[in-house]
Amino acid sequence: MSSAATRASSFFARIARHEVHPCRSSLMSAARLPIVSWSATTAAAFRVEFSSKSVLGARGFHVSRPGLRDRPPSSWGDMIPQPPRPSSSETGPLTKIILRPQYKRFGQSPPGGPGSSNRGRVPIWLDRRYQIMGGVITVGGGAYYVTHLETVPVTGRRRFMDVSPQQEEMMAKEAYKQVMAQFGNHIVPSNHPYTQYVKRVASRIIKAAGLGHLDWEFHVVQSEEKNAFVLPGGKVFVFTGILPIAKNEDGLATVLGHEIAHQLARHSAEKLSFAKLTMLFGVIIAVVFDPSWTMQRAIMEFGMMLPFSRKCETEADQIGLLLVAQACFDPREAVHMWTRMASQEKGPSLAFLNTHPASKDRIKKLEEWMPKAMDTYRSSDCETTNEWADLFNRSDLAQW
């Protein structure tokens, strides 16, 4: 072996024993080194290439690591110490950016660190622990869901409900305090003609719905807002802005029948129950798919909550129409009332962004349900009731 090869072999043996650093060796002071070849063992561990230009013009040299197929079991290449990282005093702004710590997710090793793998982490659905956990949650949650199913009156729809009437009543009391604090100063007296008018129409629908056992209260809010709602427990609020659109008792019965239908179907409690399912679904999305918070909220809002709200509103329209007919109000007025409501709406109606269906969609549904509502109206004993209704309709209180 030539003297150059002998010196190179000795040098790399010292490197393997960590006795010298390749970038600080006196070997770099050599003016020129040829391309060196040596024994098969050393050649399998390293490939070193020198040129006069690279040696003379640089402060170090490059040691290329061998391929995996010709790499010895001892893996000498991994034993070569790496050059120290520059200290903060020696680094410039660009170097600090390049060498800054890498982002590390919770429970995940950084690339190249302990526990990392070239193939990536195991998908969560293939992890045995998560499979067991998912099975327990699925069985337990499924049993809880099935045991809390019930049937909605009138429509017969099956739904999940885990809020008791007592819990609903407690929450309704707090909601009633908040509404009174907000609109209390704008509520007309109980002996006002508007309040008496609302009470008269609502009482007939309440009787038809079989909800006379509740402690009903009727409030008319002096406001241009076109709205009405009923809180659980029988607290009715009607805004004066909707009275001209209702126009007569049959039109007001359409409004109140819809709101009382919410009470009969317990939609408020159902929404609270459905919110729990939505939260669970949101957790599953976050664990399995790991979307951003904005994406998760969008999926839950537009994919679950808003469609569910529109479904409840549509069901209240259907139940309310039958209650109106059962209470001997003309259900055909519902189509005219919603036509007047649609004429008051401004701008495009994007139903998928709203909690309520568009007025034109509600009209189509009402027309589909009208034959059954008219059968209910004709089969009801409305002769005596309609005589009294005609007297009220001819009065000034029932017309705007």
Q: Could you provide a short overview of the structure?
A:
With 400 residues, the protein is mainly alpha-helical.
Radius of gyration: 39 Å
Strand content: 5-15%
Sheet of most strands:
3 strands, mixed
Distance between the amino and carboxyl termini: 115 Å
Number of strands: 7
Count of helices? 14
Oligomer status: single chain
Structural class: mainly alpha
Q: Residue ranges: pLDDT <50 for 5 or more in a row? A: 18-77, 102-107, 395-400
Average pLDDT metric: 74
Protein name: Peptidase M48 domain-containing protein
Region (Disordered): 63-94
Pfam families: Peptidase_M48 (PF01435)
Domain Peptidase M48: 195-369
What does this structure look like?
Helix content is 52%, strand content 6%. It has helices at 3-16, 40-45, 52-57, 93-98, 128-146, 165-183, 193-209, 243-246, 249-265, 267-288, 293-326, 333-344, 359-379, 383-393; strands spanning 47-48, 63-64, 149-151, 158-160, 217-221, 228-231, 235-239. A 3-stranded mixed beta sheet has the order 5-7-6, with helices on both faces. Strand 3 and strand 4 form a beta hairpin. Residues 195-369 form the Peptidase M48 domain. Belongs to the peptidase M48 family. Keywords: Hydrolase, Membrane, Metal-binding, Metalloprotease, Protease, Transmembrane, Transmembrane helix, Zinc. This is Peptidase M48 domain-containing protein.
